[in-house]
User: Which sequence fits this backbone?
């Protein structure tokens, strides 16, 4: 005999976003500071080969957010480790001292480093470099909002530039909830007023999500709407990334 089904909560609230300022985006017809539509991403500029000394590297610029990622390896791990049929991935995200409006605050970001690792590990074929390590170093040159999604997307491009075998390229996009509106690829000012945020990292060609992060209070329909917006944007971003790789491969070598 089947028992009563458990009641499904109408909202999901893992960690309420802190509200430190008076909300200003209350009207339905408000205009974003940079003039974009609510579901319009910033223009993306991507380039490979940004660091000559690295096995692979990439530079990404989304509006005022500027990131450079270097990949080293596969190489023998400096730490003693038992033999494993899979490789090891190390990720580090740091900010320059001039990246944020508060000068002199540059440092490693352990939270971002961990999230970058989680976003990438599901896309990399770890069995292709057993008992060796791939190191990914991301440096945020300028923080203009949506820093983590830009870091993740740039890191995917750098891994491909390094020849690391992957199931698919990874693309990442975030959405902020501002009053009654969902805005994609938020800038720093919008993030400071957001009621909640949702970030998706996926492999568009395989239609697989490698990471989903939700902050704040969201109703179930709202989460579904935000996810759909992000997935469509990830698909478009992946096309730009592939185009960048094709141009890099066809460019004459010095």
Assistant:
């Amino acid at each position: 005999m089947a028992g009563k089904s458990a009641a499904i909560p109408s909202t999901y609230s893992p960690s309420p976003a802190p509200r430190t300022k008076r909300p200003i985006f209350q009207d339905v017809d408000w205009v974003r500071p940079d003039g974009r539509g609510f579901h319009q991403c910033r223009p993306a500029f991507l380039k490979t080969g940004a660091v000559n000394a690295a096995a692979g590297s990439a530079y990404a610029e989304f509006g005022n957010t500027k990131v450079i990622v270097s990949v080293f390896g596969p190489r023998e791990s400096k730490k003693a480790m038992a033999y494993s049929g899979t490789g090891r991935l190390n990720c580090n995200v740091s900010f320059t001292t001039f990246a944020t409006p508060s000068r002199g605050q540059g440092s490693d970001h352990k939270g971002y480093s961990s999230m970058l690792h989680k976003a990438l590990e599901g896309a990399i074929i770890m069995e292709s470099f057993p008992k060796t390590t791939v190191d990914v170093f991301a440096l945020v040159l300028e923080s203009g909002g949506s820093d983590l999604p830009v870091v993740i997307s740039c890191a995917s491009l750098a891994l491909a530039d390094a020849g690391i075998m992957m199931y698919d390229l990874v693309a990442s996009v975030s959405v902020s909830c501002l009053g009654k509106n969902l805005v994609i690829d938020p800038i720093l000012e919008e993030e400071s007023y957001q009621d909640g945020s949702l970030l998706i990292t996926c492999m568009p060609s395989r239609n697989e999500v490698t990471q989903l992060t939700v902050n704040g209070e969201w109703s179930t329909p709202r989460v579904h709407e935000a996810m759909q917006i992000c997935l469509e944007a990830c698909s478009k971003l992946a096309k730009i990334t592939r185009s960048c790789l094709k141009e890099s491969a066809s460019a004459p070598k010095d």
